[in-house]
Amino acid sequence: MTERPVQRTPNRQLAALITEAGFSNAGLARRVDQLGLEHGLDLRYDKTSVTRWLRGQQPRGTTPALIAEVFTRRLGRRLTALDLGLDACAPVYAGLEFAAGPEEAIDIVSGLWRKDSGSHAELRKIAFTAAGLVVPSRDWLIGRADDRVAREEPAPRVPAQGGPLSSARSAVPAERSAYVPPRPRGQADREAAHKVTGGDIAALRSVGELFRALDDQYGGGHARQALVRYLEHECEPMLRGVYGEQTGRRLFAAAADLTRLVGWTSFDIAAHGLAQRYFVQALRLAQAAADRAYGSYVLVTMSRQAVYLGHGREAVQLARVAQQGVGTGAPPVMQALLHSVEARAHGVLGEVRACTGALVRAERALEAARPGDEVPYWARFFDEAQLADEFGHCHRDLQQFRAAAQHAERSLRLRAPAYARSRLFCRVVLATARLGLGELDQACVLGAEAAGQATEMRSVRALEYVRDFERRLEPYKDAAPVRGYREKVAALG
User: Fold this and answer.
1) Confidence band of 161 (pLDDT split at 50, 70, 90)
2) Which of helix, strand or coil describes residue 29?
3) CA angle, corner 407, sides to 405 and 412, nearest 5?
4) Whether 411 contacts 392, CB under 8 Å
């Protein structure tokens, strides 16, 4: 018996939108492929593929979401796969949404924690997308704190017949009272039981300090998974618990800080797309906390990641949005931090004048700081050692190697040993500067020291700094100091 061919229904919704957008079949296919590249996907669609979709064939995987995003950009209104007559799938920017309210923000960020705390290795392979930076930073800049974040004690659940409230049930229609929609196992009990206290928030803050110290000393990969599990099992029940307005704001602030930190550790292990999503959600939690200053710090973090990945123009925009968001009333130390981050972005773009101007503003701001100034806890790391580090990186990127060496040496003299990873980065900057000045022997000694330190950490960024230095050594590969350097690194295993 021969199998009958599958009958497909032509996709008139997609056809109408193609006409509205003015796309040809080939043009739509090309745009889907280009958007796929933004997400690290190597797609090979063509006009024939679009013809099949129009005939009713369903594209696989996340492609429906990519197609919807192409039309969203073209038509200027949000469209989903279902609007295109395609099967629903996860949004292409899942995790990059800037939630409309606190409840949605909790749902999005807790979903990330849960997926990240298991064996979902694919979550850590999500690609970074520069396009995903624009909307969240804009929404934060023009948005305001949520009017209300408090969560009340949930109403008591109606027991089964024969229980102490059985007489009360008789006044309620049976078909409406007998059924309670199922919820994830254990979640309802945690929500109902947890009333958030000041001690809970103090614990969150202490955990943040602990994991920050571990990250600085040993790299983001050392305890990242433990932090994610803590967020899932301790922080989420608090966010879904019971609290008033003041406690709620403090809770969201602490959750924002820990979410930014887990994003930072993800960045350090090169899980860039995942890190980006954590940063966006930290930004949204900071808005719920009514903490404008911390939101600017999250944008600073996002700018640093963009610099690292070579997206200089987006990094400049993020730094400037952070500055606009807090205005000129921020403490001098914070102003110095904001200007230095903008300088790094100009440096990676090779914009000498703009970079120098931002560095001068940062230096003047730090000079204006006084011992009695009220400085947010998260900005206290920014001192003379950090500013010298920023100068060193900028001058390296601008190939001003003598200045880069001077500032890197100053940073290493001033920087506390606890900031081991930052010291490693600065040592590689110094090695690169010495190489640029023709001091090959000294460059290789410094590079070997940094390589040895990198083996003691779980930090992909540390390894990539060392590899960048080694790429710069290639023109000198036959020189004796370089051969010696390679032998030392090989001995490290």
Assistant:
1) very low
2) helix
3) 95
4) yes
Beta-carbon contacts of residue 238 (< 8 Å; ≥ 6 apart): 194, 196, 200, 204, 251, 255
pLDDT digits (tens, 9 = 90+) for 59-90: 887 788 889 889 988 988 878 888 999 887 66
The CATH code of domain 383-493 reads 1.25.40
Maximum Cα interatomic distance, the chain, rounded to a whole number of Å: 92
Cα Rg of the chain (Å, integer) = 26
State pTM to two decimals.
Answer: 0.81
Closest to 294 (Cα-Cα) out of 412, 376, 206: 376
40: which 2 tokens? 């690290």
Instruction: Report whether 298 contacts 141 (CB < 8 A).
Output: no
Residues in CB range of 332: below 8 A, 6 or more apart: 365, 366, 368, 369, 370, 373
Integer Cα distance of 116 and 315 in angstroms: 26
Q: Name all contacts of 433-440 with Cβ < 8 Å and 24+ positions apart.
A: 433/392, 433/395, 433/396, 433/401, 433/402, 433/404, 433/405, 433/408, 434/401, 434/405, 435/469, 435/472, 435/473, 436/396, 436/399, 436/401, 436/404, 437/401, 437/402, 437/405, 440/476, 440/479, 440/481, 440/482
Beta-carbon-side half-sphere exposure of residue 427 (alpha carbons within 13 Å)? 23
